[in-house]
């Protein structure tokens, strides 16, 4: 945790703890910098009550309070990333990753509540996938991480409903010369449910990213331009176009006019 004092100079504030963030009066400052760790922030499942690290939802809340001030008439761009989802998958800890997704969803919902969808483009996406798979036929409503999804006819041992192609958990579930270890016995030896891993086929210090396409979800103005999977640079160009950054939307009027002309032509063709 950074060791610094709260500093206010020329209406610029630097904060480093949850308490400092919670005590903010954003109406009295013009610039805000929050530094809450020297490296990655802790996983959401590791943030206990009374922790000095604020939740992502709080960071988003105060960021939007700053950005939505009346004097900011030209709009704003808020970029929020939760890299701990990817980190948890790389450690083969699916429950920790799932909890981190919920943590990110809370932050996204906060932004959606505070901003107006009539004039704000909301985008949610992931830049990479993971090698997580869901094998077998687990019982409905069962816990995929902690219950058997079936039994292997080859070695007579159960297998879990979640597994990874690569990662550090390989050595936990496989033994050279003897093969697989009973995964239920492995899980019983780890009391902290968020620290429980799932099997990985290929041993690696950290699990590799997946190669599948990353989906993009959007709502608000120009959201129709984002409705599937895209090259990442296209998303950045779409944001620039929707927000008219550096003249990126100079052709927007022509685009709208061309679309209206096309629709009129189609209508004439159908009804004449």
TrEMBL record:
Q: Which Gene3D superfamilies match?
A: Alkaline Phosphatase, subunit A
Question: Binding residues for Mg(2+), per the UniProt record?
Answer: 81
The keyword S-adenosyl-L-methionine is assigned to this record? no
Going by the record, the broad EC class of this enzyme is hydrolase
Q: How is its cofactor bound, per UniProt?
A: Binds 1 Mg(2+) ion. Binds 2 Zn(2+) ions.
| Pfam families to which the protein is assigned, alphabetical | Alk_phosphatase (PF00245)
Q: Which InterPro entries match?
A: Alkaline_phosphatase, Alkaline_phosphatase_core_sf
Q: What is its EC number?
A: 3.1.3.1
Transmembrane residue ranges: none
What keywords tag this UniProt record?
Answer: Magnesium, Metal-binding, Zinc
Give one GO term, molecular function aspect. Answer: alkaline phosphatase activity
Q: Which domain of life is it from?
A: Eukaryota
Residues bound to Zn(2+) are 127
Q: Which cofactor does it need?
A: Mg(2+); Zn(2+)
List, alphabetically, the PANTHER family matched: ALKALINE PHOSPHATASE (PTHR11596), ALKALINE PHOSPHATASE-RELATED (PTHR11596:SF85)
Q: What is the designated name of this protein?
A: alkaline phosphatase
Source organism (scientific name): Anopheles epiroticus
């Amino acid at each position: 945790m950074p060791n610094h004092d709260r500093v206010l100079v020329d209406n610029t504030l630097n904060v480093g703890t949850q308490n400092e963030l919670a005590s903010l009066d954003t109406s009295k400052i013009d610039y805000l910098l929050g530094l809450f760790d020297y490296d990655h922030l802790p996983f959401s499942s590791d943030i206990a009550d009374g922790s000095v690290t604020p939740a992502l939802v709080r960071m988003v809340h105060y960021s939007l309070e700053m950005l939505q001030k009346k004097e900011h008439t030209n709009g704003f761009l808020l970029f929020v990333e939760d890299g701990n989802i990817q980190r948890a998958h790389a450690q083969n800890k699916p429950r920790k990753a799932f909890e981190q997704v919920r943590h990110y969803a809370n932050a996204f919902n906060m932004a959606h509540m505070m901003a107006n969808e009539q004039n704000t483009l909301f985008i949610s996406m992931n830049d990479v996938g993971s090698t997580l798979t869901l094998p077998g036929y687990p019982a409905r409503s069962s816990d995929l991480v902690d219950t058997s999804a079936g039994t292997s006819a080859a070695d007579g041992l159960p297998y879990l409903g979640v597994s990874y192609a690569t990662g550090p958990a390989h050595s936990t579930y496989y033994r050279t010369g003897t093969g697989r270890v009973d995964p239920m016995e492995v899980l019983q030896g780890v009391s902290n449910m968020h620290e429980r891993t799932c099997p990985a086929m290929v041993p690696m210090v950290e699990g590799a990213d997946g190669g599948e396409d990353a989906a993009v979800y959007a709502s608000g103005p120009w959201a129709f331009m984002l409705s599937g999977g895209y090259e990442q640079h296209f998303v950045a160009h779409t944001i620039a176009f929707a927000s008219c950054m550096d003249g990126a939307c100079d052709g927007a009027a022509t685009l709208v006019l061309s679309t209206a002309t096309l629709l009129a032509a189609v209508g004439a063709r159908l009804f004449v």
